[in-house]
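Q: what sequence does this backbone want?
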């Protein structure tokens, strides 16, 4: 899935932690083999190669769950989350490497292969049909969160209730660390002068996801294009934003961070308000002014400063045999 996975957990001893974390990383590896668009032999990539052939393809339970959930969000957001966006995303990946804007003819051609209505799912047979030739599915806006949730489930099945699983900016949280109110997760600051400072939020039994153009972007002729592409236009977002979503699970927070980024504050907030147990913070600089939108009010109060703590880390976790941290990267 193109990102490192990191786990922090509390166990009775080192052996217990190792067995549980090995099983959880094994589950992530299994999901990577099914959901990654970077791996040409993944189940997802093989499904993409059937596009335009007019035949439904039986998919695994894991891939079905992610595709079905993604299509639900696509309908709710009018296509702001669209897993068929792969052709356009791939074009922008090349553009960032070459540091040049995608050619208009290539962008138009790639857009002709994008559209969530071209992905047809049959819930009775759990099959997927890709209507248009040369489609390419990309689960980057939802799969990492799902994998983090699944890893947390494995840890819990091994008797580890207090744990954190981070897949880049998508963080699944179990029970709070012993003696603490919750996990302290850092929300970074927008990288502009006078932006609100980074802060910590405290949460447990839920998820926190952050997306923006702080680390991945293309800057051309004074315009900053995010790696997050609007599937409806084929263009990287240009409002210079950082969106953080708190939700009941990481698949939900992962999807919503993308949806809100694409829709913007007004329409994004409408969808957040319709989704139970969610909160959002949007910091953006579309022009010369920094704008901050939060819902519900007070959920993202500044509170304790990070003081250099790593994002997605338990800033005040005690050292010792009860804590295990490890990281693995999946392609």
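A:
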């Amino acid at each position: 899935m193109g990102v490192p996975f990191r786990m922090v957990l509390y166990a009775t001893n080192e052996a217990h932690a190792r067995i549980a974390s090995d099983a959880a990383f094994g589950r992530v590896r299994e999901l990577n083999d099914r959901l990654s668009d970077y791996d040409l032999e993944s189940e997802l990539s093989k499904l993409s190669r059937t596009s335009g052939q007019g035949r439904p393809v039986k998919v695994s339970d894991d891939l079905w769950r992610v595709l079905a959930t993604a299509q639900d969000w696509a309908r709710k957001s009018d296509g702001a989350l669209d897993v068929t966006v792969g052709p356009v995303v791939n074009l922008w990946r090349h553009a960032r490497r070459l540091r040049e804007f995608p050619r208009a003819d290539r962008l138009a051609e790639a857009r002709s292969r994008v559209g969530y209505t071209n992905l047809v799912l049959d819930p009775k047979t759990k099959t997927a049909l890709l209507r248009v030739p040369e489609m390419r599915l990309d689960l980057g806006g939802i799969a990492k969160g799902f994998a983090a949730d699944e890893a947390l489930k494995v840890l819990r099945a091994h008797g580890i209730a207090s744990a954190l699983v981070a897949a880049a900016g998508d963080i699944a949280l179990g029970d709070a660390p012993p003696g603490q109110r919750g996990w302290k997760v850092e929300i970074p600051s927008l990288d502009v002068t006078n932006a609100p400072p980074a802060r910590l939020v405290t949460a447990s039994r839920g998820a926190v996801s952050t997306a923006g153009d702080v680390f991945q972007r293309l800057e051309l002729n004074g315009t900053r294009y995010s790696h997050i592409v609007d599937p409806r236009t084929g263009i990287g977002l240009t409002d210079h934003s950082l969106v953080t979503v708190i939700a009941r699970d990481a698949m939900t927070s992962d999807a919503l961070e993308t949806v809100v980024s694409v829709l913007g504050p007004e329409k994004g907030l409408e969808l957040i308000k319709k989704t139970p147990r969610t909160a959002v913070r949007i910091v953006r600089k579309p022009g010369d002014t920094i704008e901050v939108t939060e819902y519900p009010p007070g959920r993202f109060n500044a509170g304790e400063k990070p003081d250099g703590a790593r994002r997605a880390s338990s800033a005040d976790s005690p050292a010792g045999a009860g804590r295990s941290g490890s990281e693995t990267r999946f392609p």
